[in-house]
Write a structure and sequence with these properties.
This protein has 291 residues and is of the alpha+beta class. It has one domain (48-256). 16% of the residues lie in helices and 27% in strands.
Length: 291
Amino acid sequence: MSEPTAEPADAATRRAARPVVCYTVDRLPPFDAAFYAGVRAGPSPIGTIDIPPRDARAFRVPAGHLFRIVCVDGPQVGDLNLWNADDLGERFFSGKTRQLHATHVTTGDRLWSSLPGLRPMATVTHDSLAWYGWDEDGAGVHDVIGTRCDPYTNHLLTGVDYDRCCHSNLVRALATATGLSPDEAEAHVHDVLNVFMCTGFERDTHRYFMKASPVRPGDCLELFAEIDLLAALSACPGGDCGAGHSDDAAACHPLRVEILRPSAKALAGWRPASRNGYAGRHGVSMKGGRQ
């Protein structure tokens, strides 16, 4: 075990360095509130998917459509994965979404795709829990911090095999939707948007914490598909995540997904999001010395 290090004489100076926001996000395309308000004005329902407690379902959302995740019976957290419907290799990038927006997302924020695509997959158009903001514990709702509950971490910590963690639920849902084997599907399951989950970091230890979600029946998170999407949503075994997860102890409830088609007039001039325009080769020279 290494010896504790002594604090240097200039420790206070080093700690006083000015924080710098990592990305100049003011250069991102602005949220077009008028456009999305028009999209939300009287869309036609075209499908409903019910997500059973401690299970998941996959569903497709065409580009230019809305999908609404709804709390129907009681407080319940959901874990959301997104893929390009035509290429599972392009998927939701929670880390970049966190860097470009914040630890928690709300109306006007986008869910970004993985490299090299790096484009908006979906835009949050309505958040009925936007009123929550940040509480006295520093917690907020709809986080892109936590990865998802999974059977491997659960076994590591408890020695128990549990097959209804969100990771496993998402594996089953993706395998069913695509015809992939569970092993093949598992490679595509990724870090989630924790819908309705209330989380933060402890101020003294900076450890990730969760608390009972403020979601109630009728609350929803609504998103606009910026590209053709394959999505999967798990109704977390932790229920409202106010006590635990990765077991059958919590009261769990179903979630509902509603898919809606905006009017043609509302979408006039709109185009699906394009893949990132970076044209470099990462500094690797090609024949003839060109990059």
